[in-house]
Description:
The protein is mainly alpha-helical. The chain contains 8 helices and no strands. The longest helix has 28 residues, at 2-29.
Amino acid sequence: MTARRNETTNQVARNxxxxxxxxxxxxLALDLVTGLDKAVLFAAFLDPRTADIAGSTILLCLSAxxxxxxxxxxxALSLAxxxxxxxxAQHMVHVxxxxxxxxxxxxxxxxxxxxxxxxxxxxxxxSASMLGSRARRSALVQKPVKPRRITPTASHKxxxxxxxxxxxxxxxxxxxxxxxxxxxxxxxxxxxxI
Length: 194
């Protein structure tokens, strides 16, 4: 009972850490906090407004799927790659004096994203989803199981098996007679009656 309670407590703590990390990136996508430039990846081939909308939309969607734990490995890896590429393009293409500290902050946040699923077993990853774990729990609680005793019935031999056994017994008990050449011809031509 204590191990199950500890497992539940650990899972709740991991979910809270994931929600806090994901909420930072959601706030970043909605321009509520300053930090990473989301539009830097799209600025080369889109106008600034469209690039900002595209970057914000992608970051918001990835953050939301990461927060709720939907396909946790895929969403965490996609979010980490998006942040890494954006931070690398923003801070390391044109190196400025304070750029390394901002890049270092983004790398630290990427490590927090990766640690949210790297230490989990496949069972824990399945239960990490906030939507899926509630549905599984409600499906398990629906109906109690009532065990019942099953007694094996006496096995009856089928009539074909009895006939085969009778035939084998009569062949074994009958004395063997020497073969005659006429019997041999009958044996060799098994398709004569067809």
